[in-house]
Structure formats: C-alpha cells, structure tokens
Design brief:
alpha+beta, Serine Threonine Protein Phosphatase 5, Tetratricopeptide repeat, Alpha-Beta Plaits, two-stranded antiparallel ribbon, elongated, Nucleotide_cyclase
Length: 477
C-alpha cells in the first residue's frame, strides 16, 4: 500500500509540473498541497522536499508572498534535516527570490551563486537555465548590463540543451529568457533587438496560459517606449502590465510597474492620473505591509545564522563529521527516539592503527589528509543508514547507528570494516593502505545508555588491537 502511494506521489508531481507549464497554477497548487500532506504522512522525505519546492514556486508565481513566507522556514528546516545536494540547490534559488523581493541584492546574488554551484555539480541543465535567467534579471536590477547579457545568453545556451530533454518546459523558459534579455537590450539602446524578443514572447503559442510572462513582456514594451521618449505609448503598456498583474494578484509586480508609470506621468505632467496612481500605490503598499515582509526576511536570516552557528558547534571543521559536543548535546535525544521505535542500536569505536607514525614521519598536514580520507570513507559507506559519525579526538572516531534487525547491523559492521581496509593514500611515491581497528557493542533493546555502550565498544576496540590490529570485535548484550 505504501509503495502504491509513493508511486502515486511521483505521478502527482509529474501532473503538477505539467499544470505549471500549462499555466494552470491554481489547480497545481491544490494538488501540491494535497501531495505534501500525504508525503508527510508517509514520512517520504524526498517527496516532502519536492512538494515544498512546488508549493513555494507556485505561490511565488501567483504573487502569494505571504504564503511563501509562511512555509519557507518549514522548508528550510526540513532541507537541513533530510536534504541532499538537489534540495539545497532548489532551496538557495528560492531564497534568492525572497531576498530579491525585499531588495537585499547582495544576498540575492549570493544565493543564486550557491544554487549555480550545485547545478554544475549535479549537471542539472534545467536549474542552470533557471539560475542564469534569474541572474540575468538580477544584474539588470543592479545596472550591470554586460554581466546580465552574459547570464542571459548562458541561460539561452543551456535552454537549447533542455529542449532535447523537456521541450515543453524549455518553451516556457524561452519566453522568460526573452523577457529578461529584452530589458538588457533596451537599456543598452538596442531597441530593435529588445522589441524582437518581446514580440517573440507575445506571439508564443503558450503565452495565453502564462499571465505572469505576458505581463512582464508588456512591462518590457512600456520600458521600450519610455526609453525612446514615446511616453504616451509607455503609459498604455505600463497600464496593461498592471492590469495583467492584478488578474493573478501579483502585488509586487504591480508596485514595480506603478513606480515606472508614475515616473512617465510626471514627465507628461498628467496631474489627474498622477493622483489616481499615487493613491492606488499607497493603498497597495499598505495592503502588502512591506515592513512586515522585510521583518519576516530578517527573522528568517537570523534563524539561518543561528542554525549555521549551532551546526558549526556540532561539527569537526577538519573532517566535516560530528564532534564530541554532539555527544553531550544531542546523543541522549537520539537514543530516546531509537528506543521509542524499538530498534537495536550499535556503538562502534574506530581508530587508525599506528597513526602517530604518519604524523611523526610526514608531518601533521599529511596526518590531516589521512583523517579526511578516513572520515570520507565512513560517510560514503554509511550514507544510506540512520547513523551519526563522530570524531572523538585525534584519530579516534565513533559510529552510532540503529536498525530493526540485529543481524543486519552485524553484517553491516563486517562490510564496513572490509571497506575501510581498502582506503589508501600515496606519499613520496609509496602507496599506503589504511589499517583500522574497530570495536562494536550492539544493545539488547533494553540498555540505551550511551556511556555504558561506549565503554563496552571501547573495550572491544582494545581487544581488536591486542588481536593483531586491523581487526574488529563485536559484543552483543
């Protein structure tokens, strides 16, 4: 039954993507909300993260900024707990959108750059298109037209690749890229190129389903005519852009276009219209409560910094695994969770045999590299397990893991030790294999006291060393 529901969630997400492409955002949002509830119920972490992402992007496209802010903190917490590289890539791009809304440009570009880094690591063409297209827009806002053009052209190149994979999604990205590059060309006074891109957008066979993109293209025409001093035509297009934004409730775009419209109206000295637009602008500003939005973003930033500081306190900077502070602060809570779920828990103590010799012969820099190789080996092998990897001190590490099957833990310990013995490094032309001793204590589903389990495992470690090193000993309570 669970497997069937997970398959249903996968199909649901495909449907949501199709609806977003077709511009059926309200229907897509309803499905995304329902799917998120089911994914939470199933504790399907991958689906939860994907559906949070869909929910936020749809709310953003609809201009529901308050709703975005309502769930972004939950999304961030879930991402930090269960996320993988793909999820952080999505999260950083969403944070870029939020920082842009409140005008914190440095953070916007920083978040976009983080997302681009992950997109390259994952070779995710779709995200490269999105990121570079967003960067094009951001650089326009910053007045960096050359950088904006470079980003827009990169987005266009990657979109050519995306056409081979997902032509319908690429078609939507095509008109979004057109809109941003059009602004670049218009501001560079290459009016013909800018107008050609805007015409291509408005003549697209999918534009009737995408009000946001249509409104942005109309805004582009307003900018085109304003820059050419065809001010009455600019007023007409700015008003059309505002009307389109009103149809799907995008207050942020309305405010931006109203500011541009007011500038043109002042140049024309159309006093009556200036009064009407100013009044509408003030009413909209009061409704949006921009200060409240900025405060929410600042609170979010504070929470992010707090999480980062806490994470730094719990993690060893050399190897990236947990440190002894985790044992003091978090271990009891984790063991209580394991006990409540009636799983077996194993504590393993590991160290590198004759590690001091490496340090004495080759220096601490090489010793640090060996520790990093060892820690990375533990992380790679145990990445699918419910596990905590801790650097206890020097070359001694602790692994705490749980599972419902004691035999699985014993088999895993055997495979882990064999894998660790395959790790190696080269120094001055000589190839060295790591030699690892390990002691493991597996509980009896009654004793969940960390100190007692650790002492038993530590005793097993010394037995392994006394047995000739490069070995492991398991004790079952």
């Amino acid at each position: 039954m669970v497997k069937h529901l997970e398959q249903t969630l996968a199909e649901l997400q495909k449907t949501i993507v199709e609806m977003r492409i077709q511009g059926r955002l309200t229907e897509a949002l309803r499905l995304a909300k329902q799917g998120l509830l089911v994914a939470h119920e199933l504790e399907s972490h991958t689906d939860v993260l994907d559906l949070y992402h869909h929910n936020i992007l749809i709310h953003y496209a609809l201009g529901d900024i308050a709703d975005v802010m309502g769930i972004i903190h939950e999304y961030g917490e879930y991402c930090r707990t269960y996320g993988i590289a793909k999820d952080f890539m999505h999260y950083y791009l969403i944070m870029a959108l939020i920082y842009d809304l409140v005008g914190i440009k440095e953070k916007t570009i920083e978040m976009t750059a983080q997302s681009i880094k992950y997109a390259y690591e994952l070779n995710d063409v779709m995200m490269l298109v999105r990121c570079y297209n967003n960067l094009c827009y951001l650089e326009v806002e910053n007045g960096s037209l050359e950088e904006a053009r470079k980003a827009g052209l990169l987005a266009r190149e990657y979109n050519k690749e995306l056409y081979k994979q997902s032509p319908q999604i690429a078609k939507l990205h095509h008109i979004q890229i057109n809109n941003n590059l059009a602004d670049v060309y218009i501001l560079e006074e290459d009016y013909a190129s800018g107008q050609a891109l805007l015409e291509d957008t408005l003549q697209s066979d999918i534009i009737q389903h995408h009000q946001r993109e249509a409104g942005i293209a109309l805004f582009g025409y307003g900018l085109l005519y304003e820059k050419q001093q065809k001010l009455e035509a600019a007023v007409s297009y700015y008003k059309k852009a505002i009307q389109v934004a009103q149809t799907y409730g995008d207050d942020t775009t309305q405010k931006k276009v109203m500011r541009m419209l007011l500038n043109v109206l002042y140049q024309l000295n159309w006093r009556d219209e200036i009064f009407d637009v100013q009044r509408a602008y003030i009413e909209l500003t009061d409704q949006m409560d921009a200060n409240s939005l900025l405060q929410q973003v600042m609170n979010l930033e504070f929470n992010l910094q707090k999480v980062n500081l806490e994470k730094k306190a719990l993690y060893d900077p050399l190897t990236g695994v947990l440190n002894r502070y985790f044992i003091q602060q978090e271990m009891d809570a984790w063991l209580k969770t394991v006990q409540d779920s009636k799983q077996y828990v194993a504590v393993a103590v590991l160290d590198l045999d004759k590690f001091k010799n490496f340090n004495d012969q080759y220096g601490h820099l090489l010793g640090d590299q060996v520790l990093q190789i060892f820690a990375k080996g533990l992380q790679d092998f145990l990445q699918e397990e419910d596990v905590h990897i801790i650097r206890y001190g020097g070359d001694e590490f602790i692994v705490c893991l749980c599972h419902q099957d004691k035999h699985y833990i014993k088999s895993l310990a055997d495979q882990l030790h064999a894998y660790l013995l395959t790790l190696a490094f080269t120094q001055e032309g000589t190839h060295y294999m790591l030699k690892v001793s390990m002691g493991i204590c597996i509980n009896d589903q009654r004793n969940y006291e960390y100190r007692a389990l650790f002492e038993q495992a530590d005793g097993c470690l010394y037995q392994a060393k006394n047995n000739g090193r490069g070995r492991y000993v398991i004790l079952e309570l």
